Amino acid sequence: MPSSRTLCILQPTPFCNINCDYCYLPHRSSSYKMDIDVFGKIAVELFSSKIVTAPIDFLWHLGEPLAVPISFYEKAFKIISQLGEGTGIEYSITFQTNAMLITQSWIDLFKKYKINIGVSIDGPAFIHDKKRVNKKNRGTHEQVMKGVGMLQEARIPFGVIMVVTKDSLDYPDLICDFFLENGINDIGFNIDEMDGDNLKSSFEKIEDEKFKFFIQQLLKRSVESNGKFKVREFWLNIRPFTAEVNEPVNVANRPFGIFNFDCYGNYSTFCPELITAKNEKYNNFVMGNVLTDKLDDILTNPIYLRVKREIEEGIEKCKNSCDYWSFCGGGCPSNKYFENGTFISTDTVACKYHKKMIVDALADHLEQQFS
Ligand code: SF4
Ligand code: SF4
Q1: Which residues of 89-123 are buried (b: 16+ CB within 10 A; e: fewer)?
Q2: For residue 332, which atom of ligand 2 is closest to its CA?
Q3: Residues 141, 165: contact at Cβ < 8 Å?
Q4: Which of 68, 141, 151, 209 is the least buried, fewest Cβ under 10 Å from its Cβ?
């Protein structure tokens, strides 16, 4: 069944100006950039495909998007806007950035095209600078906050993604203080998980009680803020407590909820970590290339069919065995593959910490409220 909108993740370049300790992306030193003609083909395919459901959300990611010249995006956004007008299909455009390369010219571009912005910050400098380092292994917090300051001065709203590592767990209140004091009220967090090029996770060695306390404090601060301090993990997981959910929505493991395009025009569906992964067995998870294939050819692509079959078997196992099914819908396939060596599996470190313990904290909180 098609999802209600399509997330299209685009890699303008594999390059990143920094070198975070937990980054899962390979080829971060490659300065290759997507050719505008490749983007033109991607856009035409997306706006004409029978398997893409409008609206289309374009997300520039999988490398540092601001490492590509503004002139590329001016051309790309013109193509999107012409196709959008011609087809009547609605769309949005987002950059996920480390914010370090923001200049006034970028601010002007964000405003001109009403771009949504996501910024990666791991909290206060003493936490952020341990893992989010530049190529000389120096912390990047100061430069990130300079970019954040420019966004705020220009009144451009943005959300924040924080990566929680073992080092974050002792400081939930200082992390909340940092975000609130800096006017950042909309955060989501990922955990330092084993995926793609990141072959280790600091979560393999944490104490569960510490993580539990961390989550409880974040929840407490979010509740105390009366909705001002929004934490994605809580609002995303609250729904099954309030409404019956038979088939939970999980776009990462359903076909065509997400399309991923690398800078060479290779494409895949399912979670974005697959398109940048190296893997001989599955042809690097490439399910077609816009230079030689139509997007809808994915329906008969053998890699797609094999990955889909195996992901579905994994989802079925989850459905039959996991008490958290209605909150999760079967997890993230790349996470299962890179941790368990197969899509046909269930539990991962990420599902324990980024799903089950969060749902448990919400359940405890609701029980206290209503008892
Ligand atoms: S900013 Fe993002 S892409 Fe760059 S190294 Fe860090 S995690 Fe990787
Ligand atoms: S929490 Fe883990 S085991 Fe449960 S449904 Fe999600 S991925 Fe499967």
Answers
A1: bebebbbbbbbbebeeebbebbeeeebbbbbbbbb
A2: 7
A3: no
A4: 209
Cα(321) to centroid(ligand 1), Å: 35
Query: How far apart are alpha carbons 213 and 166 in whole angstroms?
Result: 13
Q: How far does the centroid of ligand 1 lie from the alpha carbon of residue 73, in Å? A: 20
- pLDDT band for position 195 (50/70/90)? low
17 confidence band (pLDDT: 50, 70, 90): very high
- CB under 8 Å to 13, separation ≥6 — which residues? 30, 31, 32, 33, 34, 63, 64, 65, 67, 68, 263
pLDDT at 3 over 60: no
d(C-alpha 114, C-alpha 195), whole Å: 32
Q: What is the DSSP string of 290-328?
A: TTTS-GGGGGG-HHHHHHHHHHHHHHHHHHHH-TTHHHH
Q: What's the token pair of residue 185?
A: 């009220």
What is the whole-number distance in angstroms between the Cα of residue 347 and the centre of ligand 2?
6
Instruction: Tell me how far the alpha carbon of residue 97 is from its chain's centroid.
Output: 11
- Provide the angle, in degrees to the nearest 10, between the axes of the packed helices 70-87 and 36-48: 20
pLDDT digits (tens, 9 = 90+) for 117-152: 999 999 999 999 999 999 999 999 999 999 999 999
Instruction: Give the global pTM.
Output: 0.94
> Best of 322, 353, 359 to mutate for ligand 2, by most ligand atoms within 8 A of CB?
322
In angstroms, rounded to a whole number, what is the distance separating the alpha carbons of residues 207 and 195? 21
Instruction: List domains and CATH numbers for the chain.
Output: 6-242 (3.20.20.70)
Minimal-distance CA residue to ligand 1 atom 1: 98
Alpha carbon of 310 to ligand 2 centroid (Å): 15
Among 10, 20, 31, 262, which residue has the most ligand 1 atoms within 8 Å of its CB, making it the best to mutate?
A: 20
